[in-house]
Amino acid sequence: MKKASFAGAAVLALLIAAAVPLAAQTAADHIRQGDEHYAQFDDAKALEEYLAAAKLEPENYEALWKTARAYFDLGDLMEPKEKSAVEEQRKLFTESYKYARQAVRVNPEDTWGHFFYSAAQGKFVLTQGKKEQINASKNIKAEIEKAIELDPENDLAYHALGLWHRTMAEIGGAKRLLGGLIYGSIPKGSVEEAERYFKQAVELNPEYTNHHLELGRTYLAMNNYDLAKQEFQKTLELPESTSKCSLHKKEAQTELDALKKKGK
User: Fold this and answer.
1) Helices (H), 20-110
2) 188 with 134: CB under 8 angstroms?
3) Total structural domains in the chain?
4) Is residue 35 in some structural domain?
């Protein structure tokens, strides 16, 4: 009888447990799960969780900037070769820009909202015309500098500033004069400044592949082939720490192969 009573009580307990709904997940739960997916390089799953958090709490700053990051990374991973893929990438960067802008509105005193605001805007305007790119360049730089002001150890912001300077430096001489006449004032940048900021990014985070890849490309722009090769080789040797590292390694190998073909 005791055994039967015990079994009956166990069944009753299970029925009661089944009748009680599981506690709903909070925004913090979704963010935590998103972070777990992000650490496993699953940006799509991370995005699902961050979006769920932002839906529950539309003013949750962490949910907003991490949603912006996830959209940005998914767009950055694409290598579009067809018009439909280009449009899809544009949509991803547009969403990243939208959520980053919301993040800055919710909390203008943290680095990550400003950083992804600048990063997404920079990627988005590349899909537009030269006039739009030049008009946006000053605002992009201002947002990067604000991200650095708020966190002087934000290595990605220094990386972005290095990329900004190198991009502006590539518009030189007659091309800059002609562009200025057509589009208006073009901000100036230099490869020396680009080198300085990429080296700062490397100093802050020496294990990130993209810092070395872009520093190598900056040395190419300076015709310093030996240092460029060192940075590309370093890119290949580093462990993968983000979903984009495998792409960085692929690009570094392409750069090394091109140098070898040229006899450099």
Assistant:
1) 27-39, 43-56, 61-77, 83-106
2) no
3) 3
4) yes
